[in-house]
Amino acid sequence: MYKHKNYVNICALIKIIMTESTTIQPGLHEKPNINEMGNERSVEAYCAQLNELGKTIPEIEQKREALKDTGIEIVGEFGIGPDFFDDDGRSLVFTAISSRWATNKEREPGEDRDREQTFLADTIALIAYKHSDKLGEARKIIEEKGSPISKEMRQMVYDKYTDKEYSELMRKKIDDEGLLNKVKKRLGITAENEDPYEVRVLSINHSEHDQTYGLDAPMPNYELPSGSSILESDVRLQEAVKNWKDGLVKRGDTFASELGLDSLFAGAWVTTLNGKQILCISSALAEKLIDPKVTENTFWYTKNDQNRDLAILEHEYTHTQGGVNVDREVAFGINLEELRAEHYSGNTMGYQDIKGFFVDIAVATGFHPNEIFDQRKKGGSTVEVFGDIVRSIGMARMLEVVLASPKNYIEDQSNEFVQAVYEYLGGFDGIIKRLIDDQNAAGKGRGMEVRIIERAQKMAEIAGKDGKEWLWDYRRKDGLNVMTNLVNRSAEEQGLKKAA
């Protein structure tokens, strides 16, 4: 069964919303009337979006009448206001939901139909909770997960831990010395199109993402005679540096606690304070980027380490420029947004699960979002990127793909609606399996087979020698088994690896 932690409450909410509707009662529902089904201005706004989206997305133009009727129905049932349709990316997602809603109405009554209807109601709650007069309970659940303290308190906590001196030094390093010029060039950023943001250096450290790596005191010279003042001073310096590092971790824990969090999510991130985008970075990482000489005592801190540290800042800076997740939230497109940030920062950081997921999509369908990012400044807008996905794999699968959050978001940040949607979709593998079925149904199976063969050959170059055979199954830890099985089988058939 499709359930989540607050299943009873959410199902009750959905039941209340649906009570006045005959949506899931076949044969009883007539063509929606604007006055009965919702706010006329909302319907006008939705129809205007349908007209615009239909100009570039053939599937929407082909289904226009059904999408119009179903969209009007959803607007009325969920009390969606006209401001919802101010954003074209949000409107495209709504249209994809409307398409699946219309399809589900035609199915035979039963558990599968009910589960799909609950899934669609959850997606509406996730995207419309700020724009509806009937989703108060959903808004409470979602917003409590997002920020357990008030905006004013969040501002005070961030102010308390902000190092103003280093924040100004970092700003000068970026603006005056061009620290981020390379990523700006890759993104197509100019003085005219750069989105405003503020950089803040915070006097904290995240113990699981130890940004103090590379910051060490000189090693004590133990060959000096015992009692030497030089030896004693070196030891004292070592102890002082250790205490400094430990203090930053403790401050990080206290910072998280004061924000109402169990722990810090990362060593650097982007947040919003008082309507401004804030690029946050730990003081230890800032020190290394402002003056690389501070790592000279750590001979094992290499150029690659330095590049990875810079990539952290580049990744987070990318999040401040444009973005392809709806409303800058977790639910729709956060996987694409993290993929975009990784793409422009050199793919040196994490999110291996998302990267593997989109590689599997590319093998199944021949489509990879990185190709979209490279064609447009800042990687494109939400509606542009989502629209390209629709044109490649259709609206139903686009909706699923953009809902597939990275594992760390599912585990650490997602509200119960997001977690339930992910469970219903069957995780990454559920989506991949349906994409494979779509390819076969559309007569594109041969092209997919060729890509699987090519992927097996590429994997053989990486994993089939030098003791790296484990890489054949590396993606299984991320729940990516469907394509891994197909690639392994192909590799065995080609003689590229032994059967397990």
Instruction: List the domain count as a whole number.
Output: 3
Count of discrete alpha- or pi-helical segments spanning 4 or more residues: 24
Our Rg estimate from Cα atoms comes to: 26 Å
The biggest beta sheet reads: 3 strands, mixed
Mean pLDDT: 88
Biggest β-sheet: strands ordered side by side in the sheet: 1-3-2
Number of strands: 3
Determine the structural class based on helices, strands and strand pairing.
mainly alpha
Describe the structure.
With 500 residues, this protein is mainly alpha-helical. It has 3 domains: 7-146; 151-320, no CATH class; 326-493, no CATH class. The chain has helices at 7-19, 34-37, 40-54, 58-62, 64-78, 88-105, 111-128, 136-146, 151-161, 164-175, 181-187, 229-258, 283-290, 303-320, 334-344, 352-365, 369-373, 382-393, 395-403, 407-412, 416-425, 427-441, 445-463, 482-493, and strands at 198-202, 268-273, 276-282. Strands 1-3-2 form a 3-stranded mixed sheet, with helices on both faces.
Summary, kept brief:
60% of the residues lie in helices and 4% in strands. It starts with 6 loop residues before the first helix and ends in a 7-residue tail after the last helix. The protein has a three-stranded mixed sheet with strand order 1-3-2, with helices on both faces.
Features:
disordered N terminus; 3 strands; globular; 500 residues; mainly alpha
SSE layout and pairings?
Layout lengths: L6 H13 L14 H4 L2 H15 L3 H5 L1 H15 L9 H18 L5 H18 L7 H11 L4 H11 L2 H12 L5 H7 L10 E5 L26 H30 L9 E6 L2 E7 H8 L12 H18 L13 H11 L7 H14 L3 H5 L8 H12 L1 H9 L3 H6 L3 H10 L1 H15 L3 H19 L18 H12 L7
Parallel strand pairs: 1-3
Antiparallel strand pairs: 2-3
